[in-house]
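Notes on consecutive records. When two proteins share a document, each keeps its own sequence and its own token line. Never mix them. Below: protein one.
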Amino acid sequence: MEYQVFTLPNGIRLLYKPVISSVTHTCIIINAGSRDEATGKDGLAHFIEHLLFKKTEKRNTRQILNYLEAVGGDLNAYTTKEYTCIHASILNPYLNRALDLFEDLVFHSTFPEDEMEKEKGVILDEIASYQDQPEEAIQDDFEDLIYAGHRLGRNILGTSDTVKNLQRDDLVNFLSENYNTEEIAIGVMGNYNFKKLTKLFAQIFSGVPHNTGKKQRSPANTYLPELKRAGKPINQTHCVMGNLAYSLHDNKRTALSLLNNILGGNSMSSRLNFEIREKYGIAYTIESNYLAFSDTGFFSIYFGTDEEKANKAISLVNKELNKLRDTKLTTGSLEKAKKKFTGQIALAEENRLNLIITMTKCLIDYGKADTIEEVFEKVHAVSSELILEIANQVFDPSQLTTLIFEPEAEN
């Protein structure tokens, strides 16, 4: 049995993945993120995530933080452009604590003004720290280029000005408009009787009022490729190159994921790493990434190198892209790539917290979570012809946007 799903009348779903273990990994995921913020409210979804841990109707900050830690558990959260996630890892007997805390944080937080002001200071420090890391900042600026003028281009943290101006009513309104109970799911991976688990789940979450607030996500229809250089107080040159790509619901998504893995995925033997780092010693870090959203996506390549080597690095990257656009993968090369990719997927499943989060997101996005066998089937179905077609679409030189952070010229 891979997993089971149970849905309450208010729309909140439970996804249960059984495993033989003394440890439970669990999460609550809300289909609401920074792209759902109103204009001028940049950083609001992330601000809410911080404040959920500050005070509820029945717990203060200390009680919230101690509730799971007192029994050896771990609690954390994060915000993306489309999701808010709170997750916990805990010994099996204390699952009720984790679920009770999720319900309290998400549906009974009070957002006191004094905590809001303190947390604004924390986030302003986080923004400043982020801006001091060019390898991180360039990724956000790149997304702002390819999604120019769209919510998806905005930094999840917001800006100093927008965060300072956030008010309590902004938080309350965002929750009302975006925390749709039919788009909230709880994932549990552990060793339980499913009937007893659903009873516990219902006891905790059935009292949550049904909320069908519909978010208005506008499509990102405008894209104009460009080359942009920006001088920064840095010692190295940082570069991101990329293009718009496929959404979560596009049937080419699996093939692009495989192609991304071939080009610059998480391995020392990727083409970019081998050619540019190992062969020429130009860049310490070089990687490619493919990120899919509900209605769009983007592909990008990042590297950092010495200023005098930047042009050579860009030339070598383009050379690798040209190879994939001009030459179809041989049957042997494709099979090796599939074997490597499916092996990495299988190893990633060993991280049980990440797995239950991924499965719960899939329940929200697709109404189901693929088994590992179904994922492997999709990978094995990818053809060399499709890889070539995608390479010519996504790596089209006339459609690539390039952003370069370079050291400021000395006066």
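Protein two starts on the next line and is unrelated to protein one.
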Amino acid sequence: MTYTAEEIEKLLAAGALMRIGMGSRRACYRLPDGKHCLKCYRSDAEIEEGKYPGSIVVKPLAAGASREIHHCRFDERRNTCCQEYRYWLELKKRLPADMMAMFPATMEQVYLPSRGWALVEELVLNADGSMPKKIAEEWSLSDPLQRNAILASFNAIRNEICGKAVSFYDPQTIIIQRCADGLLKLRIIDFEPVSRSFLPLDKIKIFTRLKAKRRFARFLRVLESVPPAVSKINQDSPRVNVLCLKWGTYYGPEYVNRLYAGVRRNLKRPFRFVCVTDNPAGLRPEVEAVSFPEDPGVIGRPWPNIFVKLCLFKNGFADLNGPTLFLDVDVCITGSLDKFFDYRPGDFCIIHNWVERRKSLFRALPAIGNSSCFRFDAGVSGAVYETFLSMKDSPGERWRFTKGSQKFQTFAMMKSGHVSWWPSKWVCSFKRHCIPLFPLNKIFAPWRPSKQSAVVAFHGQPDMVQALKGYYFKANGVPVNMHLTCKPCSWIEDYWHE
């Protein structure tokens, strides 16, 4: 070992070690050689510093964590450092060398009279000698191209860990090391060798795989909900397109005008706003009105109809080119739209269609998108339109159209390219996520959408006007489902205005 226990004790007592990390239970110090670090339980003074040392608001350390520090620091069997060391030795025996490279290359156990059992391990540094950042911090500062590289490495680590049944339940502790060749390497410097579940199931491979998959999926949802750094977006960015539809008399021009105003307030890059309509009267001058595409001739349906959205994919339509975000006119913009253009460029992107809660308890959501909000690359997505033309009159394919346009649109996009689902919190359903569950909807007004939400879809009933006024037992003389009734929703006016 590079340092003896006595030497480390003297350095700790003299305050000569720089602290480079702090968790709820353990602290990490950089050793003077610059190549190793010391990981040990917090001292009594560090317990008094609270959960987030250095923050303006001091949050006391949880009583359970404090008790664990005092009871486990000298107990070799229960000490987390010892458990991690034993598991690291086990992994060295059963993992291939390329996979083991994601963990520290060296790790040694040491007993310190003042701190109990501790670890001396390899210090992971960037090529320039700086400290690496955690994946969440690096992700928040990365542009879309860098994010794709991070995501690919993250998925590779997830597949390896789950495939080999490694007991790793803390994806948020993964760090990103910048190597000399410019590549980014994901490293695991702090792993949880045992589950904190009530039953000791860590030796059962099925359990460790399932739990690791669940933790990774949960952390990935958090990452995908974080928009790119604002500094990456400016007026020099390429122009994008925002597209909507309006026909008939149910929705007036004020819907389009308010949608445009919401986009203007929440999109930082230059954009072209196009409304495909049969009546441009009343639209504000910034809105570019375009006539409907030619009738493709869907049997038994007058034109325009719900399949008009599939015609928007036709190459050359309205001279559209580049990333194009489609929004229904009856959506409410509540947050930044830039993330919708930065998310997985080149893919077809759409929000999963919402189903009743009881239908999703024991099965996954079907591969059907909700077309109130989707993105495609205009000018190069004509295969979706061609698929529609080739199958709309085929007797063997008619069943694909029986559930409406959304099911077929998702199918055609999957057939023509890669489909990515928007993170679930980016687009929310008013009636599924904002109206309280019955009977609470009789007492409380609809909840505001979460801060991560940027689009609220008013699909079906109630629509925005009905929700503003309150949607009660009867609307226009027609009985209303009890679970859809709602008290007046005043917060809609905060977002839905010119």
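For the record: The CA atoms of residues 311 and 385 lie 6 Å apart.
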